[in-house]
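To close the chapter, one final illustration. This time we ask the reader to focus less on the individual chains and more on the assembly as a whole: which components sit near each other, and how the overall shape emerges from the parts.
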Amino acid sequence: MHTLRRHFLLFGATAALLAVLTQCKGGSSDTILVGEFASLTGKEATFGVSSHEGTLLAIEEINAAGGVLGKPIKLITEDDQSKAGEPANVVNKLISKDGVIAILGEVASSRSLEAAPIAQQSGIPMISPASTNPKVTEVGDYIFRVCFIDPFQGTVMANFATNTLKAKKVAVFTDVKSDYSKGLAQFFKEGIKKLGGEIVAELDFNGGDKDFKGQLTAIKSANPDAVFIPGYYTDVALIAIQAKQLGLTIPLLGGDGWESQTLVDIGKDAVEGHYFSTHYSTEAGSPKALAFIEAYKKRFNNKVPDAMAALGYDSAYFLVDGITRAGTTDGPALRDALAATKEFEAVTGKMAINEKRDAVKAAVILQVKDGKFKFLETVAP
Amino acid sequence: MDWFLQQSVNGLALGSIYALIALGYTMVYGVLRFINFAHADILMLGAYAAFFLAPVVHPIIPLPSFTGAIVIMALSAAICAIIGIVIELLAYRPLRNRPRLTVLITAIGVSLFIEFTCQHEAVFGAATRAFPPLMPAADFKLGNIIISSNDIVVVVTTILLLFALWFIVQRTRIGTAMRAVSFNQQAASLMGINISRIISFTFALGSALAAIAGILYAMRAPGIEPLMGMQPGIRAFVAAVLGGIGNLPGAAIGGLIIGLLETFAGGTPGLSNYRDGIAFAILILILLFKPAGILGKATVEKV
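The assembled structure is written out below.
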């Protein structure tokens, strides 16, 4: 009862603030304000920029088609610089100062986890495009995502290592600074053990480290058939280079944190031939995906959209789909409509929202080949 | 056994980098008696200088080549030497007669200022950039031990620079003046030494060292970003204290110890999580039991 009242109070306060603000701006109540927070600069900048561009493209398309509920959408974007602490600041600002009706973001699980309690407390739906850590949506019933979660991704890679690569002994190299990495590593290990494989070495690094030779030498001496490195692209590129220098020639495996042109730019031939799972591939697309790829290339200088761009795009359409079905932008009604999504045609495949507010959808496995990401297989949930 | 030898090689190469950075800390401390925390950021600026110089030098001297790398290192060192002089002029010189603590705090401020200015989109931006290969690289095999040519370059450069520095400090007129300034500033100035010139020279030398260390660091891990100096900077600082701050061979030995410890800790399952903590545990232990460091003596003449 108490929390309910606080809820209403907060909601009332937000609504009042929104009213004041819209009055100030003089008639801007004709637009629907949507907030976005992303890592536009910093360590994971290529992810943030991609998802932001996808989101931006979607919003532009939606507005060109007449907006939603007869009103255009105004996207307010904030940069959290890939830094801990920053998401709380910018999301607070988006909600209390700008008065947005929903929040889109973040790619990184650690930063989504920071913003989620704020959105939850304010009764503002938050949709993460690409945070795969299960804990993100556990924060509360206002938090959604349009991507699959780590248990699925970790398990997919465990299956791939065992069945396709025939790896019996694997090593795991985890970024202890990242919730994403730890989550993926845990489910990979469980998957491998379930399939009768053996974890021969478990080592850690800190995201941002530059020297990994100590750990890699230990991994090498454990003699594994493959190494799972659920990190982000910058670290992974440096790890791959040093692994190659140490003569560690076995396959390296990872998750969607690998997918960035920077991985190849820094890693060059050291990342060749390695595998990772991700959300979609431009080579295995539906008509909807092909249309998206065309539109994105046209809008952003012929750049090929990566998975983060596709997910950013999906997150905006997912929100608009919810608003259309709810017929309103009120937090609780919008939340219910989003939670009731059963068949949403996303660029990254058909998806449904389950009772934990996670997207249920397929994953793809890619291999780095000639500096490009080559599609290998699709894995259904 | 292979494991142990390979880890020793890894640790020595990493330690040499720390040693090289520590030389800069220890030299500035020797003359001015304060820690120039901006040293680690000059290291980053050195790497960026090389990053921007590489495409300029490439049409004249094709990269990767040793000549090209040496030219780029020399130019970057010169650029950073000037930056070092400017920093001293603007930030430290006005505080020369203030308490040491004021200067120390200013140094931290300068460091943060450089880091966050460089993170701005209009400067370098915060995203990691791929560092171009400057030197031809090869990996040598000794049985099962693999030594990369970059690591050899790092070790050799560190040794050469250590000797060059020792020569400058012990055998040249300006080195004698530096030692005099470090011994007693007032007395040195009464003897007709231009203190400001000596301090500028010290900063130029320290910053040039940092630039070379930055380039070598970027060559080992070819991804550079504006905060890349923080981690090696703090390790090198610990190395300088460990060896006895103000003492040149001490800095080199300290760097090697930290590099070896970090590598062995990192390569031990279960301990790899704590490798960052180890450097600081050492710092605390040294301060507790031998505050002057391994080679430091309380009354030694320092530079």
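The radius of gyration of chain B is 19 Å. The longest helix of chain B spans residues 2-32. With these observations in hand, you are ready for the problems at the end of the chapter.
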